[in-house]
């Protein structure tokens, strides 16, 4: 009988703890996400969709911008999973590298712009909680994640583009032989 009572008390306690966590999100992170999204869409509306498209087309012409600025803007403006749609501005052989850059940036952006990939927010907050318990700043972690993420997406984009073009050329030679 004692075990049944213990199970009942702890079973409902699990849901009570989940409810408290949920309310913490509703009063903390959810309003922040809504304000950040509103700000981002307001900036796009203020600048104008045509100007934003022109800027992205310009970035797609240059490898350095294609794998740094383009993925950053796509993730911050369109969020996950719509960020991949900026791939329409790149050539067909550059699409795998662009996708690699975007998908690689979805976690590092979460600390500064949590709305961009809400699914990763729980992972980031778990890491940030450990960092704060160790006595370090969460904001410092967020900035470092972001900066390292920019370097990683640039490197991955360039390497993936070169590999893709190499494999296309190799396949082309094989088909012509």
TrEMBL record:
One of its GO terms (cellular component) is membrane. Pfam families: EII-GUT. PANTHER family: PTS SYSTEM GLUCITOL/SORBITOL-SPECIFIC EIIC COMPONENT, PTS SYSTEM GLUCITOL_SORBITOL-SPECIFIC EIIC COMPONENT. The keyword Transmembrane applies. This is PTS sorbitol transporter subunit IIC. It comes from the Bacteria. Coiled coil: none annotated. GO terms for biological process: phosphoenolpyruvate-dependent sugar phosphotransferase system. Keywords: Membrane, Transmembrane, Transmembrane helix. The chain crosses the membrane at residues 22-47, 67-86, 142-159.
